[in-house]
Design brief:
Layout (H helix, E strand, L loop, with lengths): L4 H11 L5 E2 L2 E2 L1 H4 L5 H4 L20 E3 L6 E9 L4 E5 L12 E10 L4 E7 L9 H13 L4 E6 L4 E6 L14 H8 L4 E2 L5 H6 L4
Parallel strand pairs: 5-10
Antiparallel strand pairs: 1-2, 3-6, 4-5, 4-6, 6-7, 8-9
Length: 205
């Protein structure tokens, strides 16, 4: 007995084991977006904004393990505005009371959002408060594990909460650390005593 064309097409669909749609049946699990979707689809993400901030207590983050993706430098922080400014080395001796040595780290959350995590470094006396020391300790954990950075007010320090599941590895951007810094600190580099921020701190504006 001759098979009709509809039956033949259905069998062909069933024989195609690599298809996610067979005999009009959708493989739901196979169709789900994965963490590395952009990489698989050949999509190059254009980074236009890189926040400079601490991790949010509700987000899981990773820290780039390569030391080439971090920088120890002098930073001026406007706490009221929650803004960080890079300070050119030739300016360090001009405003010693306004700058703070910090470690700038490249971090990423589960949504693929990159940010620069600034952590205060020990001063000339080698001392560091518990908050920043604990943050530095958590960095080493975050290089290999997805963690949430949680403030323990009773302890006076940060604690790490590791993700309970087997999460995929972060997809780091195909760019350079210098390019990220250029974006993160665009318009926020102090290289002159005439910089508006310094005039503001001096009460001149």
């Amino acid at each position: 007995m001759k098979k009709d064309s509809k039956t033949d097409s259905q069998e062909m669909a069933q024989d195609n084991s690599g298809s996610t749609i067979s005999n009009n049946q959708i493989d739901v699990e196979a169709m789900r977006l994965r963490q590395d979707f952009n990489t698989m689809a050949g999509v190059k993400k254009v980074i236009t904004t890189v926040p400079v901030r601490k991790p949010n207590r509700q987000e899981y983050i990773r820290v780039h393990p390569d030391k080439e993706w971090q920088l120890q430098t002098a930073v001026l922080e406007l706490k009221e505005d929650r803004e960080h400014y890079l300070v050119a080395p030739e300016m360090w001796s001009e405003i010693p009371g306004e700058i703070t040595p910090k470690l700038l780290l490249t971090a990423i959350n589960r949504q693929g959002v990159l940010f620069i995590w600034p952590i205060k470094l020990p001063g000339e006396d080698g001392r560091l408060d518990n908050w920043n020391q604990s943050a530095l300790d958590l960095v080493e954990i975050a290089k290999e594990n997805w963690i949430r950075v949680v403030a323990n007010m009773s302890l006076g320090a940060y604690e790490a909460s590791k993700a309970g599941g087997e999460l995929s590895e972060p997809v780091w951007p195909k760019t350079t650390f210098q390019e990220l810094l250029n974006i993160a600190f665009k318009g926020r580099v102090i290289d002159s005593v005439d910089h508006p921020v310094l005039k503001r701190l001096a009460g001149e504006v």
